[in-house]
Write a structure and sequence with these properties.
alpha+beta, two-stranded antiparallel ribbon, 91 residues
């Protein structure tokens, strides 16, 4: 016999106020040097995002973004060929 078990996660900020609201999101925050997670509903997750900046891991080096390079101006074909021919022909 197979029995399915459904567990519901409730929003932790609402649970503090003794309200049972189903949680669909997870909020991450730093507390005493460790990353913690809290189950939250959509409203609490949006409120947290608007109030606090996103959590960034500063232990890893940050990659620098490359600036967009401009395409080099095409050199005239005569100048490049003449310099190459004169250099190789003299020796």
């Amino acid at each position: 016999m197979v029995t399915e078990v459904f567990t519901r996660k409730y929003c932790d900020p609402h649970a503090v106020r003794e309200e049972k609201v189903e949680a669909t999101e997870v909020i991450q925050f730093a507390w005493e040097g460790a990353v913690r997670e809290v189950d939250a509903c959509v409203e609490c997750a949006k409120e947290h995002e608007s109030r606090y900046e996103p959590l960034v891991d500063y232990s890893r080096p940050v990659k620098k973004r490359r600036a967009a390079k401009k395409a080099p101006a095409p050199a005239p074909a005569d100048n490049g060929d003449a310099a190459a021919d004169s250099g190789s022909g003299q020796e």
